[in-house]
Amino acid sequence: MVKGKRLRKSTDKPTLGDVAKAAGVSTATVSRALNQPHQVKEPLRLRIEEQINKLGYVRDGAARALASNKKRMIGAVIPTIDNAIFASGINALERRLYEEGYTLMLAVSNYDPMHELKQVRDIMEQGVDGLLLVGNEHASETYSILEKHNQNFANLWVLDRESPYPSVGFDNFRAAQQITQYLINQGHRRFGFISGITEGNDRATARLNGALSVLEEQGIALHSQDIVECRYDIWEGRNACRHLLSRKKSSRPSAIICGNDVLAFGCLTECRELGVSVPEEVSITGFDDLPLCEHLTPSLTTIHVPSQMMGERAAEFILDKIAGRESPSHIEVPTQLVVRESTAQAPN
Predict the structure, then answer these.
(1) In which band, very low, low, confident or very high, does the pLDDT at 3 lie, cut at 50, 70 and 90?
(2) 15: closest CA among 49, 73, 58?
(3) For the whole model, what pTM was predicted?
(4) 286 in Cβ contact with 300 (< 8 Å)
(5) Residue 188's CB: how many other CB atoms inside 10 A?
(6) Fold of 173-304
């Protein structure tokens, strides 16, 4: 995986012959593996695919389409469509692109970097004018293929001014610091953290590390048993919450920070099931500010992420790149702490 490190750029685009030579097969075999993969034995097909990924090869017909730059099509690969925060941002992105006469082509990676790589290559073979990804952490082959073909692209939902790759988003680390500091100011000293799975997800990692940095600065320990990593799912949030609250009352967390609102929904539900009062016994926070947050009982304290603005800014950035207009390499979308009923002063 590569995070914000520019790869050595090659001006020579790989050819079908390069792939064949690297794989030790004929060009006809490579062509068959691409166009009729069921006719090629799996070990050989996988060997050819490995060289395609390594070299960053895109089929000739697609390369001509890329060069013509007249498809008026933008590609986007997102991790999931289960999370409403992505749906809202993509909806705003599509609407803004449509206003300018562009069509959006969407794919879902399910947080799998190699699946994302295949989708990026497949989308580029359609001759898209621009490509949008989520996060800063992608397979090295993904960055390689983008650079070799001079593809206009940006990373979304992340802001990394140190990265050589353009980004449109926010500082997940700093936002997590803000919500953690708020809870400390409320007198909390015993914390639990329910995180999304950090492997392959730089946003989840940044949120966890942001919280840990503030706690460490304040001399507050967060041990391994206080951190649960799980999928962004309500039932996963419930199970994680039950684990954190299973110890005796005097040692369990008085505040639980959740990596997103979906996990917080699960946590609130489990507290109700266990008879644990929120926020009197435990404060709970989320991240994203989904529309449901303000209608829950209690309503959820969270970090507001302006997902519609994210989609609009992303569209404007990629349109500027296509048109050759000057624009900043990193565009910040501001987040905001929204305090509601699910948090309060720490219990005595």
Answers:
(1) low
(2) 58
(3) 0.82
(4) yes
(5) 23
(6) Rossmann fold (3.40.50)
Q: Please name the helix (run of DSSP H) or strand (run of DSSP E) that holds residue 229, with its range, or none.
A: strand 227-230
Closest to 147 (Cα-Cα) out of 51, 5, 46? 5
C-alpha 112/C-alpha 115 separation (Å) is 5
Higher pLDDT, 291 or 16: 291
What confidence score (pLDDT) does residue 304 get? Answer: 98
CATH of the domain spanning 2-170+308-332: 3.40.50.2300
Strands 130-134 and 73-78: parallel
How many percent of the chain have pLDDT more than 90? 74
For residue 348, give the amino acid letter. Answer: N
CA dist., res. 309 & res. 278, Å (int): 32
Q: Which residues of 253-266 are buried (b: 16+ CB within 10 A; e: fewer)?
A: bbbbbbbbbbbbbb
Q: Are strands 2-3 and 137-138 parallel, antiparallel or unpaired?
A: antiparallel
Q: Give the pLDDT confidence of 46-77 residue by residue, as tens digits.
A: 888 888 888 878 775 555 555 555 578 999 99
Name the least confident of 51-60, 127-136, 315-324.
51-60
- Six token digits for residue 6: 């520019």
Where exactly are the structural domains of the chain? Answer: 2-170+308-332, 173-304
